Amino acid sequence: MARIARILRYATLGLGAIAALLPFYYMLIGALQKKRDTGLGGLLPKPSNLTLDNLAGIDDSFSLLGALANSLIMTVGVVVCTLVFGLLAGYALAILRFRGRGLVFALVLLVQAIPFQLLMIPLYVMVVRYFGLADSYAGMILPFAINSVAVLIFRQYFLQIPREIFDAARMDGASELRILRSVAVPLVRPAILTAMLVTFIGPWNEFLWPFLVTKDQGMQPLAVSLANFSQANSTFQANPMGAVLAGACVLAVPAVVLFLLFQRHFTSANLGSAIKG
Amino acid sequence: MKSLRDSGDGTQAAGDPPRGRHPRPSPRHAPPAAATERRIPGRRPGASRLQRWLGNSPLGLVLTAPYTAYVLVVFIIPFGVGVWMAFHDYFFTAPGVSVPHPFVGFDNFTEVLGEEKTQRAFANLGLFMAINIPLTVVLALALASALNAATHWRGFFRVAYYVPYVTASVATLAVWLFLFNGSGAVNNVLGPWAPDPSWLANKHLVMPLIAVYVTWKQLGFYILLYLAALQNVPKELHEAALTDGAGRWQAFRAVTLPAVRPVTSLVILLSIITAGQLFTEPFLLTGGGPSGASLTPALLVYQRGIEQGEPDAAAAIGLILVTGVLIIATVARRVMERD
Q1: Which CATH number fits domain B108-338: 1.10.10.10, 3.20.20.150, 3.40.50.880, 1.10.3720.10?
Q2: Is the Cβ–Cβ distance between B170 and B284 less than 8 Å?
Q3: CB contact B109 to A (< 8 Å)
Q4: What is the pTM of this model?
Q5: Residue B2: band (very low, low, confident or very high) from pLDDT cuts 50, 70, 90
Q6: Which of A58, B113, B240, B243 counts the highest number of beta carbons within 10 A?
Q7: Per the UniProt record, which residue ranges are transmembrane (chain B) (predicted)?
Q8: Mutation test of the interface with chain B: which of A26, A43, A103, A120, choosing the one with the most B Cβ atoms within 10 A?
């Protein structure tokens, strides 16, 4: 009885893993095919049909490195803004007593509740028409520059630090800013790593907003360039499917590799603290 | 949400040092003390009333100011403008041109609600939720339970399930597109059983396919949530049920299901919110077709607002969508938290 249960359990887990990973295998094998092979045999790598030409083919349509650089600039910009604003707000909310603290905390929770569907059109009008930030990194970064999840992560970490540490620093004559820089930030390094990992994936994978604000191909992040390529230009390629899948690999690999390197930090505890608000 | 706020205020009230009005005794003549007094000007008696009003650390206002400013510019003002647009006659003009935007009441709403496209988009969203939410809950709970009981390869399975979640939709959608198009690998496997017309061109299959894709993409996140809850279920409870003669299924229903109920409630809530935002999948896979079969409200907001230049109609659709999602989420929560 227990044995049957165990076999059933591993069969379920195995099937789940295959379903989760098979599309990635197909992404890789499809990206390397010289000639499109959609038959069952196409799932096996055939040395005679393997090539890296698809990468070169996609690079003819748009600059792969340029798109990657745009993705990187947008992502780094978002992560840096998130960390700076998140650390400042999280520290103030957890440690300092000031008028309006309750209001700011209410805003942090409110931001999580406002859906993007309602913001999309007005934000587009404001950013593109009034601020004139179309086709600019600032316009791409703006809606993601603050992240309430990061504020909540930092606040939670700062609350766990014994207050005596901050009091001792004050006794020694350190200013609040100095305490923040030399005492608080080094103590919450794990939280900084968590917040970086949690926020990195969002802008790297984001499609809708950069798609709205960038019309200039030279400014588009990879996700947008790739989507446009797969919809319009790919028919000119020798192996259109291979070219799109090659681009998909380039887009997927950085996020997956970072996740594999730091997957220990993607624990349910972090996710829990991230969504409790 | 509540517990977060409570713990914060508790800590603050109990542990806050009596700064400001009662400066700590410090060695008068030592140089560091002089530096301290110069650096914290708020300690002068003249500032005490203002400081009492501002709180012990007015610096907090400065530190949170960038965040607050951002919230105003990026969330609160667009939110207000969006609601305003929905009730006014609003259209794009050249920059600097001032035109009247008269109040039109619910005209935008009656206009969009009367259109077949809008009705279809919301019906599609309903179909999506009816497939996506039960599938998500059952699969996430089943895989998390199996993973919780497993002794080997746990790390591998955990990582495998989470990989789709961290990968860009644009990348994984490309794979699904080529797996499920007319001459794709799925139809090759199915052979004579392949649907006709094929998946993405089939108006009965395209929305279920999108629902399955989103389930696949999000599942890893929900498995981790369930896993955390399952690890907190006392093993003794489960064993006690088994020794009392309950079958495995009975024990699961009597012990595990009630214990993970809060997580189930959360998973349903997050699935509803995700469903409301459904845009990238239909946009990239089918563009909303065939003939509106995969149109979603969020995609319609984009089409009306930006492609067709009717931001007022788009804002009205957005507002209807948000209200609908809110109502469904509230009802789901009530149902989950009953008894």
Answers
A1: 1.10.3720.10
A2: yes
A3: no
A4: 0.86
A5: very low
A6: A58
A7: 59-87, 125-147, 159-179, 205-228, 259-279, 313-332
A8: A120
